[in-house]
Design brief:
CATH topology: Maf protein
Shape: globular
Strand content: 15-25%
CATH class: Alpha Beta
Length: 226
């Protein structure tokens, strides 16, 4: 497992007091994923989900298409940063209470090839057939933004699938479970039976690495239940 921490952006105006006030330790989650909410609950972090952009709000949506030649780690960090920045923009535009914004992004890759969320059943079938009987990497980036300050963490986990029969791939795709998940599978669902080995963060494969997220929030003065 690899964990990478970063500090970005200009020098914040509150440099002498970088942590959020205790009264503002409740955070916003820039994701509607029930899995990420469950994992934040596991950390004991109070949070509120930021709803989708409304028409009155300006600014481009996050472009989740890989850039030409973009490496998987660069890709997942870029998308995650953009999600956090977009979430903070919504907080400001809606004049919400100023609380930090947590964002995450997960991708599956084989070497430098990114397997994102499948666009249809045919692509889900293709992804799973390519993952069959081999090892791949799951990358989850986490970003937290408060004011001008943004920091990130990156979790990298190696996962190996057993060989899959075409019929079981078809049944799994027909269940609908793969359709909103990077790489066309969810480790917490039936696809857990496909996995023979995992080296790294189980929660990272689910979509929010607990260790990296806790360390990131701690740097902003937000603690978990332990």
């Amino acid at each position: 497992m690899t964990s990478i921490g970063e500090h970005e952006g200009g020098i914040p105006s509150y440099r002498k007091k970088p942590n959020m006030p205790e009264a503002q330790s409740r955070i916003y989650l820039a994701s509607r994923s029930p899995r990420r909410r469950q994992l934040l609950d596991q950390l004991g972090v109070e949070h509120e989900v930021l709803t989708q952009r409304i028409k009155a709000e300006r600014g481009p949506d996050v472009d989740e298409a890989p850039l030409p030649g973009e490496k998987p780690r660069d890709y997942v960090l870029r998308v995650c940063r953009d999600k956090a920045a977009g979430g903070w923009l919504r907080v400001v535009q809606r004049k919400l209470p100023l609380r930090g914004v947590l964002a995450a992004d997960t991708t599956v890759c084989i070497g430098d090839e990114i397997l994102g969320t499948p666009v249809d059943a045919a692509e889900a079938m293709d992804f799973l057939a390519r993952l069959s009987g081999r090892e791949h990497e799951v990358l989850t980036a986490v970003a937290f933004k408060f004011g001008e300050r943004m920091e990130t963490e990156l979790s990298a986990t190696a996962v190996r699938f057993r060989p899959l029969e075409r019929a079981e791939i078809e049944r799994y795709v027909a269940s609908g479970e793969p359709m909103d998940k990077a790489g066309a599978y969810g480790i917490q669902g039936h696809a857990g039976t496909f996995i023979t080995e995992i080296r790294g963060s189980y929660s990272g494969v689910m979509g929010l690495p607990l260790y990296e997220t806790a360390q990131l929030l701690k740097r902003f003065g937000i603690g978990s239940i332990v």
